[in-house]
Amino acid sequence: LISSATSSLRMETEILEKKLQDAQVKLAEKDEDKEKEIQSLRRLITELEFQLMMEKSNNESFLDNMRKEIKHKSDELEKLTQERTQLIHNLSRVQEENTLLQETVRRECEERYELTAALTQAREQVLELKKLSGNFP
Questions:
Q1: Distance between CA 70 and CA 66 in Å, rounded?
Q2: Per the database entry, which stretches of residues form a coiled coil (predicted)?
Q3: Cα atoms found within 13 Å of the Cα of residue 83, Cβ hemisphere only
Q4: Helix (H) or strand (E) holding 136
């Protein structure tokens, strides 16, 4: 009986040891698979961090370029605004000069008309005097 029980226990022990070895092999395989998955995820994280860094760098570069462009456009707008103000000032001055010249031309035309009228009247008077003097020597 003891021999049979011992034999039975040995067989059971061998079966359990075999199961334990199988379980350890499966556990080692799972651990290996997990380690491979962890390494793969680490590589993916590294790649994604690099992509993120590149995107961030590209965005910063783009923002810097946009800031420079905005500054350039702002400076250009300021310059154009100053030129516009100067042109408006010049236009106002030229309009004043034009008004002054128009007034001068109007006055000179009136004077010329008056002088022409006076000359015509003087001619008529001279002709009248000539006629009269022709009758009276």
A1: 6
A2: 13-97
A3: 6
A4: none
